[in-house]
Design a protein that fits this description.
Blueprint lengths: L1 E5 L4 E5 L4 E4 H7 L10 H6 L1 H18 L2 H4 L7 E2 L7 E6 L3 H6 L9 E5 L4 E2 L5 E3 L6 E2 L2 E7 L8 H4 L3 E8 L4 H9 L5 H4 L5 E9 L10 E6 L2 E7 L7 H11 L6 E4 L8 E2 L4 E6 L3 E9 L2
Parallel strand pairs: 5-15, 7-12, 8-18
Antiparallel strand pairs: 1-2, 1-4, 1-12, 2-3, 5-6, 9-16, 10-11, 10-15, 11-12, 13-14, 13-17, 17-18
Length: 293
């Protein structure tokens, strides 16, 4: 399933080849299914198998009774990020060798981990705002892994059982400020966490719809021009290795997300740009860039 969160707070699922949006609670109720249903994409992903069966039954009834069309919304109906405030955004730096090299960094032999603040998250088709004082700001398109469960000292063999879905992420970075901060011996946290610097979406894609994330494309376009292209098999540290590594240091929890790193080709954004992150099998995350007022 591809799960979305509408701006009015309704959980929705994509339907058909055009990926129209079907509000879950309304569809179930209209088909006579009055049992409690999840209300967020994360909770829906955690019970994806059961919810998928309920929705299959409901849509069959609604098609037969002619009620389905009245419930469907356009594919680009306004949405929030599918996880508007992740529990923690655990971001991985320099996880593609060519990206590490393009910034003049050595290829790391263990994951480079930093936190991205949940307050930075915005949803699909929402604006990224650039302050006039911040200097160069770069895009970084990534695959985001969503955890539905966690634990401590998780083995690589068991790691993928914690994953309930995937989405797109743009780890927008105030590059000039990051270099200044690091030059002073400070962490780069501030440069990663300006408001609107974490576009996330458009959908949360459940693991049954994307069973093998080990070799999928991750790309980014600015104004239609390809700027980044990579595949997840080029990651230095795989998803299971990242989960195992992180859980050795601290317990992972439901609602944690892992930004798995960006492929080479990072570059600047300027006011007026339209940036699109595409993850194969997930969708396209679009963000317009504007000046902060």
């Amino acid at each position: 399933m591809k799960l979305a969160l509408l701006v009015d707070g309704q959980l929705a699922v994509t339907f058909g080849e055009e990926e129209q949006l079907l509000p879950v609670a309304a569809a179930l109720a209209a088909a006579g299914d009055m049992a409690p249903a999840p209300t967020t994409p994360l909770d829906a992903a955690c019970e994806a198998e059961m919810l998928s069966k309920r929705l299959d039954r409901a849509t069959a009834i609604l098609l037969e009774t002619g009620k389905l069309e009245d419930l469907l919304l356009p594919p680009f109906a306004p949405r929030l990020a599918p996880i508007p405030r992740p529990n923690r955004i655990l971001a991985i730096g320099r996880n593609y060798a060519e990206h590490a090299k393009e910034l003049g960094n050595a290829v790391p032999d263990e994951p480079v981990v930093f936190l991205k603040a949940s307050q930075s998250v915005i949803g699909p088709d929402q604006e990224v705002f650039l302050p006039d004082w911040v200097g160069r700001v770069d895009y970084e398109g990534e695959l985001l892994v969503v955890l539905g469960s966690g634990g401590k000292n998780i083995s690589e063999d068991d790691a993928m059982s914690c994953v309930v879905g995937y989405t797109c992420f743009n780890d927008i970075t105030a590059r000039e400020r990051s270099k200044i901060l690091q030059g002073k011996g400070h962490p780069w946290f501030l440069a990663k966490n300006l408001d609107t610097f974490g576009p996330l979406g458009p959908h949360l894609v459940t693991v049954d719809a994307l069973p093998d994330p080990t070799n999928i494309g991750v790309s980014l376009r600015v104004n239609g021009e390809m700027r980044q292209e990579g595949r997840t098999n080029q990651m230095i540290h795989s998803i299971p290795k990242l989960i195992a590594y992180l859980s050795r240091w601290f317990a992972l929890e439901k609602g944690d997300v892992i930004a798995t790193g960006t492929p080479p080709g990072v570059g600047p954004l300027v006011v007026g740009d339209l940036v699109e992150v595409e993850v194969e099998g997930v969708g396209i995350l679009r963000s317009a860039v504007s000046a902060e007022s």
